[in-house]
């Protein structure tokens, strides 16, 4: 670990950098905004059995949103 | 990320009111089904057709009822946060400098996704997401111990987990995994400011070949509430020049994800190949 941690890097992010000065703006730029967040207003569950119990109790169909990864995580 | 037109402003109320929304790994796009697992013939986003089809099912399949044992055995995809652990939600997207040199969101295209059909990738909207999980012992070890100016190295298991598992070009969902041997250098430190504030700083370099490599710079601000004995801020940005399917500037932003908040319990991308998290939580060597 000493050798691992001791390596200091020459940073070369295409002349770009994250600094205390641009942190807030860059942070906001990366996070979702505008019409990118509507789906997050839906009360998703990750719990399949719970979804089935609710569907049975409420007489509703289940909408299964599925991707190769987790839709609410990395997809 | 999500797909434009699936869950936009107009669809939120429809979905919330008429369906039980379940997010799960294992396929593409999604479908509708009954409480007992009978699939309807239409897929997302055909909400009206799905409801119409559902209403035409025999009443016994629609009316509220108790489920039989065995009907609940599916969808065990979630990745439990370690007991007492901490979850950090991350967002990943390409960024590029505008005419003023300020970084802005950049168009996201993945060649592999585009092969699924014309415009497929263009429908994708928003940053991709992931979750970083820390055990209780790990996050407690990050808490400030000394006075302003105290500076220490982030414990190896946490630093390597971030470098190997969470600094990657996963913007379009096509990103490859790093292995531990791909990590060529990395440094991550915490410096105590005033009032429980801490500054996270570091860098990392991965190399799997000239066609797959990256350099990162990391800056973050954490806050530890000594009265509650817990972090209430865990914000960071990682900016990386990544080579994979072209050269991209990848921005990753992290934020504290409270228990029960959207998506907490989603499997980290890297753990698709480590479903029990044994390597993920044991990343020292």
The share of residues in helices of chain B is 10-25%
- Give the oligomeric state of the chains in this entry, treating copies of one chain as homo and distinct chains as hetero: heterodimer
Shape, per Cα inertia axes of chain A:
elongated
Average predicted confidence as pLDDT of chain A: 79
Whole-number tally of structural domains of chain B: 2
Helicity level of chain A: 25-40%
**Rg calc of chain B:** 22 Å
How would you explain this protein's 3D organization?
The complex is a heterodimer of chains A (75) and B (285). By secondary structure, chain A is of the alpha+beta class. Chain A has 3 helices and 1 strand; from the N terminus they run αααβ. Chain A has helices at 2-6, 23-30, 48-58; one strand at residues 62-67. Chain A starts with a helix and ends in an 8-residue tail after the last strand. By secondary structure, chain B is α+β, with helices and mostly antiparallel strands. Chain B has helices spanning 9-18, 47-55, 59-62, 111-114, 136-142, 156-166; strands at 2-3, 20-25, 30-33, 39-43, 86-97, 103-105, 124-125, 128-134, 151-153, 183-192, 197-209, 212-225, 230-243, 247-256. In chain B, the strands form 3 sheets. In chain B, strands 5, 6, 8, 9, 10, 11, 12, 13 and 14 form a 9-stranded antiparallel sheet that branches. In chain B, strands 1-7 form a two-stranded antiparallel ribbon. The longest helix of chain B has 11 residues, at 156-166. Chain B is globular. The two termini of chain B are 33 Å apart. The mean pLDDT of chain B is 88. Chains A and B meet through helix 2, helix 3 and strand 1 of A and helix 1, strand 2, strand 3, helix 2 and strand 5 of B. Strand 1 of chain A pairs parallel with strand 2 (20-25) of chain B.
């Amino acid at each position: 670990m000493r050798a691992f941690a001791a390596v200091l890097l020459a940073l070369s992010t295409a002349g770009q950098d994250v600094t205390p000065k641009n942190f807030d703006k860059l942070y906001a730029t990366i996070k979702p905004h505008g019409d990118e967040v509507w789906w997050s207003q839906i009360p998703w569950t990750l719990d399949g059995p719970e979804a089935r119990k609710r569907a049975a109790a409420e007489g509703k169909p289940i909408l299964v949103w599925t991707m190769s990864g987790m839709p609410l995580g990395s997809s | 990320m999500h797909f434009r037109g699936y869950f936009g402003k107009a669809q939120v109320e429809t979905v919330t009111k008429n369906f039980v929304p379940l997010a799960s790994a294992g396929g593409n796009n999604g479908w509708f089904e009954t409480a007992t697992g009978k699939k309807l013939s239409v897929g997302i986003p055909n909400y009206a057709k799905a409801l119409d089809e559902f209403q035409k099912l025999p009443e016994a399949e629609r009316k509220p009822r108790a489920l039989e044992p065995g009907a609940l055995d599916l969808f065990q995809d979630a990745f439990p946060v370690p007991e007492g652990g901490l979850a950090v939600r991350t967002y990943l997207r390409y960024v590029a400098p505008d005419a003023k040199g300020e970084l802005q969101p950049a168009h996201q295209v993945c060649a592999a996704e585009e092969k699924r059909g014309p415009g497929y990738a263009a429908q994708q909207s928003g940053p991709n997401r992931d979750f970083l999980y820390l055990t209780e012992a790990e996050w407690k070890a990050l808490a400030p111990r000394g006075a302003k100016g105290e500076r220490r190295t982030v414990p190896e298991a946490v630093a390597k987990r971030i470098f190997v598992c969470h600094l990657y070009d996963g913007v379009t969902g096509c990103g490859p995994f790093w292995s531990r041997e791909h990590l060529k250098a990395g440094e991550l430190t915490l410096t105590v400011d005033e009032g429980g504030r801490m500054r996270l700083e570091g860098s990392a370099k991965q190399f799997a070949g000239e066609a797959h490599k990256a350099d990162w710079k990391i800056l973050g601000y954490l806050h530890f509430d000594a009265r509650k004995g817990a972090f209430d801020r865990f914000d960071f940005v990682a900016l990386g020049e990544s080579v994979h399917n072209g050269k991209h500037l990848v921005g990753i932003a992290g934020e504290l994800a409270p228990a029960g908040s959207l998506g907490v319990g989603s499997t980290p991308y890297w753990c698709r190949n480590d479903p029990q998290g044994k390597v993920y939580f044991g990343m020292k060597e």
